[in-house]
Amino acid sequence: MNAKRVWLSSFAIAIALGAAGLGGVETLGAQTQGPVRITLDEAIQMALTHNHNLLAARTTIQENQAQEITANLRPDPVLLGDAQFLPIFQPSQFSSTYIDNTAQFDLGVSYLFERGQKRQHRLAAAEDQTAVTRSTVADNERTITFQVASQYISVQLAESTLALAQDDLKSFQDTLQISEARYKAGDIGEDD
Fold first, then answer.
1. What sign does the CA torsion over 138, 143, 144, 150 have?
2. Residue 127 host element (H or E)
3. What are the residues facing 107 on neighbouring strands?
4. Residue 16 CB: number of other CB atoms within 10 A?
5. pTM for the whole thing?
6. Distance CA 144, CA 146 (A)
7. What does the pLDDT look like over 87-122, one tens digit per residue?
8. Which residues lie below 8 Å from residue 165, measured CB to CB, with a gap of 6+?
């Protein structure tokens, strides 16, 4: 009977962990041959460690931190140059007088001066987005912890209910055996 309780407990915990995102029961049975008994803290830790959705959400925190770095960058200066009216398809006209009189060359440098604290506001917005993502991940962790704990407690309740029912059955069987022995001894009648 005790092995049956341990098996029921392990099966229910495996279902709870599978529902939390572990991907199946085979992860518990792969390490040992028989049922596995784990604590609530171990079940929660396994769910938080192996939940793929939670792992993916944690990577978004790193992505947002990279966006913070990008938002804080200053713009680069730009060097521009261009040449027009060059006789590429008529090489016979290519001379110093043609280049001096007809061809045009432009060279320039540009730089964006940000005003109104735009860079600081971009950085603050990126930091706020990182804080939102961290809060979302923490909320997901709390949700998974609650789900695993609820399912674990449900398994514990089912185990105790099963044990109580088995004790009641044993007590009833003992009462029947005593009554049958008393009947055979003539102590009580058939109606009792």
1. positive
2. helix 118-185
3. 81
4. 22
5. 0.56
6. 5
7. 888 888 888 888 888 889 899 999 888 888 898 999
8. none
At 108, the amino acid letter reads: G
What's the Cα-to-Cα distance from 176 to each of 119, 162, 182, rounded to whole Å? 85, 21, 10
Asked if 16 and 156 touch (Cβ cutoff 8 Å), the reply is no
Burial 161-182 (b: 16+ CB within 10 A, else e): eeeeeeeeeeeeeeeeeeeeee
Judged by DSSP in three states, 1 sits in coil
Q: Which two tokens stand for residue 39?
A: 């604590």
- Token readout for 48 is 């938080």
Is-contact 188 182, C-beta < 8 A? yes
Burial call 19-54: b when 16+ CB within 10 Å, e when fewer: ebbbeeeeebeeeeeebbebeeeebbebbbeebeeb
Distances (CA, A) of 70 to 17, 22, 52, 58, 137: 38, 35, 28, 19, 22
Rounded-to-10 torsion of CA 4, 10, 15, 21: -170
